[in-house]
Write a structure and sequence with these properties.
The complex is a heterodimer of chains A (124) and B (641). Chain A starts with a strand and ends with a helix. Chain A has five helices and five strands; from the N terminus they run E-H-E-H-E-H-E-H-E-H. Chain A has a domain of 85 residues: 3-Layer(aba) Sandwich (Rossmann fold), CATH 3.40.50. Chain A is α/β, with parallel strands linked by helices and 124 residues long. Chain B has four domains: 131 residues, 2-Layer Sandwich (Beta-Lactamase), CATH 3.30.450.20; 124 residues, Beta-Lactamase, CATH 3.30.450; 190 residues, PAS domain (Beta-Lactamase, 2-Layer Sandwich), CATH 3.30.450; 146 residues, Histidine kinase-like ATPase, C-terminal domain (Heat Shock Protein 90). Chain B is rod-shaped, with a radius of gyration of 65 Å. Chain B is of the alpha+beta class. Chain B is built from 18 helices and 22 strands. In chain B, helix 14 packs antiparallel against helix 15. The chains are: A alpha/beta (124), B alpha+beta (641).
Chain lengths: 124, 641
Amino acid sequence: MLEILVIEDELFLRQNIKTILEIKGYVCHEASHGGEGIELLTTLNPDLILCDVMMPGVDGFGVLEHVKSNDRLKEIPFIFLTARADAQDKQRAYGMNVTNYITKPFTITELISAIESGITKENI
Amino acid sequence: MKGHSSHIEKPSSNENLNNIQMLSFMLKNIGVAAMLETLERTIEFVNDDFCSLFNIVIPTADIIGLESKEIFRASAYLFKNDATVNSRIEKIIKQKNIIDKEVVELADGRILERDYKPVIVGQDNVVSGHLWIYRDVSVQKKMESSNQSQQIFYQKVLNNIPADIAIFDKEQKYIFVNRLGVTKDVMRDWLVGKDDFDYFLSKNKGFERAITRRNYFDQAIASRQVVQFEEKDVNAKGIESSTLRHFYPYINEDKEVEFVVGYGVNISKIRQNEKLLIRSLETYQNLIHNLDEVVFIVDKNNKLQYVNPLWEKVFNKSYYESVGNPLNDYFSPEIFVSISKDLEQIKTDFSIDKIKREIKLESVDGSIRHYNYYLSRFYGILKEEVMISGFVVDITDQVYAREELLKILQKERMLSDMKTVFVNMVSHELRTPLSIIQSSAEILELLYQQENPSKETLESYTFRIVDEVSNLKELMDELLLISRIETDKLQFNANEIDIISFIDEILKNNYNPWKDGRDLMLEVRGNVQTVKGDRFMLKHIINNILDNAFKYSPNQSSPILRLFFGHDSWSLVCRDFGIGIPEDEIKTLGSSFKRGSNAGFIPGTGLGLVVVNYFVEKHKGHVQYQSSLGKGTFVRISFPY
């Protein structure tokens, strides 16, 4: 079973994503903010990371930076989940080698296809 | 003997021989060429001078008795008009009239003077012979003619000099006056030997000018130096003319004044130009005098040479207190550092013509004013003397206008930045609930596809959707409020309010209890009064303050709410025991989207206090915050009655 780490500060949204992922057959690990996500990653080795951008404390970019600078984690597909839709953020994210960028609100289809193509791309 | 007949006694006896010998000696040594002939024209006597004048080589003693006709014929070639020389002599002899100083020109250029006297002997006046006297006057004649031509030359020169020239004797009588001085020849001739009194009398004019001229003339004689004075005339057309007159005494070898040269030069044009110059000078002076800028001039040593009246207003020192003093007396040393550098540069760096700089100076009333100063270089009367002109322009109003504009610009920029942040914020605040709604709805769809979906599970997602929609509605309301505030569309409606029951009502509806079960009591101090205020705004203020107090103090004791009725104002104090606000962030409280950096996961738009501040301001009240990190926050809002 593929494991996905979801880092999202909004409780209800995080819970909804978890429900969706579990229905779709993934194992979901939750973190309510960037710091917690990084902490989980010390022991966790997920197949994909789904991360919100705007969070208090360590934001999505902080988490991405941490992941990309860590040899063990840097190959893990990393998908941004964000309410920010401006091109500048998107460019910054792709500049940092993010796998995909999903803008809120999103459909389940969008979410799952991003996850699946992310995992496949990295596997090839 | 000149002009008289010669009477020679005829020698008749031996006693007379001595006389004849004496006469002949006299004639021989008389210094002129002399020849005496008889009526029959035989030579009676001739002297050596005669023979040498006419190139006669025969000894004088042998000539006597020869025919004079023959002698003249032989010497005729010597004469310029040799053909007529003898006929003239015949004619003189025939007429027997005395000839005095008849000019005879010789072929070689010499000029002779000829005298002829008929010789009358005895009482009967009978002519008995002819006496001829020749004198060589070549030298005198030549001198005379050269003197004459010289005189003509100088007169010509004097008559053609563009000045009226006169020569006076020591009594100021005219010796000479040139054509420009007196045009008419008759008048000019008449004037010689007369003076200016005669002249003006002849012209029927008063003596004033003659008297003035006499005074200057006397000065020139006394001082033995040239004296100048100006005479002004107005012609028939009313045009003024000026003549500069001079009396120039001529001092001779004996160091005495021999004559005085008077000459006048027409200086009307010069005077006219001077007038124009003065007028243009006055125009410029007037311009500089009334200029709305300070104007000053310094010499190469930075000493003030000129200041205009505005200088006094700016530097509080008059013209007389300033001119001659160094420029640095009028500036503080810090400011003069740059001025002196600029002065040095404009004096030495010829690649630049002008220096401009902005300075601040304290004005007479103590206020700070802004100026631009301009320095430029020019040359004084002496070419090598470099001078600096300075203009100081008050640009305070411009500077203020500029600063005002900058402030507006900064405000505009800030507003624009704020709008961007606001839009992002709104976008985030809208997208997150929308994501929850979207995902909840899709989960519901998935759950319905399952065989036996749990009713409770389905309900939880339905509630989640309803909840988020209600949150979205709240956010929309708040945004609408902000939008109305920003566009000034929210009206302030003040009414009398029983504030205690007003607050109690709010507490009952929203806070007793709060979501987490806590509640709070209103404490009242002072003499209760009715207050004036806008119900909508006051309600919003109280809700916001209490929401914050509860929100930021999770798991702590209830906040305290007190109402104070003071003498001039009433106030609402809310104290909580929550997380507090970092000290350096208290100042920015109430700015759009500013939230405490320690707010963590506590929801908020960062707009609440923006609205509070605005509403309090509308009531002419004011908000005061005190906070201690980790201990709690204290908010006091005061309103006038």
